[in-house]
Amino acid sequence: MFPFLLTLTLIQKITGASFKGTCQEFQGLAPLITATSKDISVLRPGEKVPFPIHAGACFVAACDVNKLPEHTIPLISPDPWVSFIELLRHCQTSYAPLETRIHPSAVIHPTAVLKGPCDIGPGTVIDRDAVIGEGCVIGPLVYIGPEVVLGQKCTIQSHVSVINAILEDEVLIQSGARIGQQGFGFAITAKGFLDIPHVGGVRIGKECHIGANSTIDRGMLEDTIIGPYCRIDNLVHIAHNCILGQHVVIAAQVGLSGSCHVKAGCMLGGQVGLAPHVTLAPRTRVAAKSGVMRSTQEEGKEIAGIPATDAAIWKRQVALAWKQVKKGA
Asked: CATH no. for residue 218?
């Protein structure tokens, strides 16, 4: 349910979907199984529908229009799911502060700069010479360290610490994340461990999303860099001096060792591990639970296993191993 009505004309303007029918109004978006006559839903290409459809309108591919009942208006789109997401994004009520609101319990250093309207939650501390961009929303119990820079419209959720970092516009950092802390680096000497000072920072590109309880270490001499438009899931660790290109996707519980370079468009499945100094070629896809010990050279390759190898070879190895196990049984 949204605070405004959706007309078919507006939906067409937002998504480009075509329709035939009267200009009806709708109140919300819903899954196909629960949608009512007041809702808009989506039918993905090839999706089976073993239940009655009651939606008032539905995004659908041209080849699937005959799956909809007469009372459901087809919103014909070459990619129904993308059109549905576009409409949902448009309808989502995003909060943008019109004036600066600082909770009485927040502590703002006198030298910190608030560049425009922003919202700062209870118990938050903004340290000296920090710069907070216009439209930022900072939740409760957040620590923004000295000289940290937040671009415009950044969202920092509760219990986050950001130190030694520069964030570009519209970065989202979810609850509990830690950005810019000391990296895990030391030399082993005859006398024991010799800790290596880390004096670099962290740079996070435009419209990146950092998941809850994820950690990104500062660089040793140079910065740890997260390129624009990356999507980093919960519980991910990115070590010192790593570099991520744009549009990198990292699923939960992935660990990147120091100085890894994950180039543009790579996708890492859950619980993947990268050894130190590994470089992944652009658009490399790494299957979940894989251990990558060596760099890749070929773009767009899928790798899997421990140690990670070509996914097709790994699948054959697994099949052969199972055959041997069955023979032994």
From this structure: 2.160.10.10
Distance from C-alpha of 163 to C-alpha of 143, rounded to nearest angstrom: 8
pLDDT digits (tens, 9 = 90+) for 198-235: 999 999 999 999 999 999 999 999 999 999 999 999 99
What is the number of domains present in the chain? 2
Convert the pLDDT of each residue in 15-71 to its tens digit: 999 998 767 889 889 999 999 999 999 999 988 888 999 999 999 999 999 999 999
Question: pTM of the full predicted structure?
Answer: 0.84
In the predicted model, is pLDDT for residue 178 greater than 70? yes
The answer to whether 290 and 270 are in contact (CB under 8 A) is no
| Catalytic-role residue among 54, 198, 240, 261 | 240
Q: Do residue 165 and residue 30 come from a single domain? A: no
Alpha-carbon dihedral sign for residues 217, 218, 221, 225: positive
Q: Domain check: are 173 and 275 in the same one?
A: yes
d(CA 320, CA 111): 65
Residue 237 annotated in active site? no
| Beta-carbon contacts of residue 321 (< 8 Å; ≥ 6 apart) | none
Cα gap 233→178, rounded to integer Å? 13
What do you get for the CA distance between the two ends of the chain, in Å?
Answer: 57
Whether residue 275 sits in one domain with residue 169: yes
Q: How far apart are CA 324 and CA 297, in angstroms?
A: 33
Alpha carbon distance 190, 103 (integer Å) = 52
Residue found by looking up tokens 């050894």 in the block:
275
- What is the band of 302 on the pLDDT scale with cuts at 50, 70, 90? very high
Range in 111-115, 216-220, 319-323 with the lowest mean pLDDT: 319-323
Q: Which domain holds residue 81?
A: 6-91
CA angle 144, 150, 151 (to 5 degrees): 170
